[in-house]
Design a protein that fits this description.
alpha+beta, 16 strands, globular, Thrombin, subunit H, 6-stranded antiparallel beta barrel, single chain
Length: 367
């Protein structure tokens, strides 16, 4: 395998679009088969964007100095204004001094720093990651779900209900308990779920903003409980490069996507989640992440804005801890039982999907 410097140079040529088609195809195959290379591509992309921001800040500072000096030479500003202007430039410098120092260090030792760049960026940087809850305006275009399409039909929602957002959820207990992301239900008073042309009312059981997980219970006389769920929910982690897939509602019908695990931790080393190479869009949030055995290994949550196909999922062991928290707080939920056996583990993918999709629901949140 090429050494680190050559690999970094190759990644730069790939990101800048300077590769010939044959070379690009070969590199993308390497990226798919070697998770470490894929991780370096993601990290280097994020690093490049940070350096671009730093350069823009430096240009701004330089331009301010030039304008300031020109105004002094022309006599447009006096001594008191000059002092004021200097103060503003000092404030600007102080604001970006940390970025400048970091950029200087990184530029001097890029080959050594590239493997640790993700941990540099704070996980609270909302510009870097995007939650995958469905956009409100898209949901408002069509109000009701029927036969895998949104139609103007009589709904179970109150007439004056206002759509707040939505996404995906899936059953974790055949009695009607679903798990989804907490951010889907933000500022919502209630939510309804949709599957196979049917609409069901739900009630909120529990929400954990820190884990970004929430549990809903289908509370509707038209719902028929499942005797068993086809998939298991596992506590075990998956391995780098392991194949995974998901089902969700980025549009008004269920959508399948497949990929692989590219890192065991999430954005900026977040241990709550894992990183997957998989295409995801608003609406996929809250969908199940499954391995080839038909075991749920995570819950789709966010994606990286500046790198195509980089998606994050909350690992499935936190579903277990969430249910434990619920049972401790309210003994009436002691009968929630997560599925431990996958009846589809020896089934081909097409038939796995056919059995799983009945358990995956579109969610609409209202107030």
């Amino acid at each position: 395998m090429m050494d680190d410097i050559q690999l970094i140079q190759t990644i730069e040529r790939y990101l800048e679009g300077k590769m010939q088609p044959e070379e690009k195809a070969f590199f993308e195959l390497q990226r798919k088969n070697v998770p470490e290379i894929d991780q370096m591509v993601v990290e280097h992309s994020m690093f490049s964007h940070q350096m671009e921001d730093f350069a823009a800040n430096q240009r701004l500072k330089h331009n301010l100095h030039e304008v300031h000096n020109k105004l002094i030479q022309e006599g447009t500003i006096g001594e008191s204004i000059q002092q004021n202007t200097k103060a503003k430039i000092v404030l600007l410098w102080n604001k970006y001094r940390k970025v400048t120092a970091i950029a200087a260090v990184v530029s001097g030792a890029m080959a050594l720093a590239i493997s640790g760049l993700v941990s540099f960026f704070a996980p609270t940087n909302k510009q870097a990651i995007q939650q995958l809850g469905q956009e409100v305006e898209k949901l408002k275009q069509g109000q009701r779900y029927q036969g895998n399409k949104i139609n103007e039909v009589v709904s179970k929602m109150p007439v004056n209900a206002d759509v707040r957002g939505g996404g995906t959820g899936f059953l974790i207990d055949g009695k009607g308990y679903l798990i989804t992301n907490a951010h889907i239900l933000k500022d919502a008073a209630f939510a309804n779920v949709y599957n196979n042309g049917k609409e069901y009312k739900t009630k909120l059981v529990y929400i954990d903003v820190t884990k970004d997980l929430a549990v809903l219970k289908i509370d509707d006389k038209d719902f028929t409980p499942f005797k068993s769920l086809p998939y298991a929910i596992t506590k075990h982690s998956i391995e780098l490069g392991e194949e995974i897939f998901t089902l969700g509602y980025p549009k008004n019908e269920i959508v399948y996507n497949a990929g692989y695990l590219s890192a065991k931790t999430g954005y900026a080393g977040d241990t709550l989640s894992c990183q997957i190479q998989l295409s995801a869009n608003p609406g996929n949030s809250g969908g199940p992440l499954l391995n080839k055995k038909g075991e749920v290994v995570g819950v789709i949550s966010t994606k990286e804005r500046q790198a195509d196909g980089v998606t994050f999922a909350i690992t499935s062991k936190y579903i277990y801890s969430l249910i434990d928290d619920i049972k401790k707080l309210d003994t009436s939920y002691q009968r929630i039982k997560l599925p431990a056996y996958s009846s589809i583990k020896n089934t081909d993918r097409v038939n796995q999907i056919k059995q799983i999709e009945d358990c995956v629901y579109m969610i609409k949140a209202y107030n």
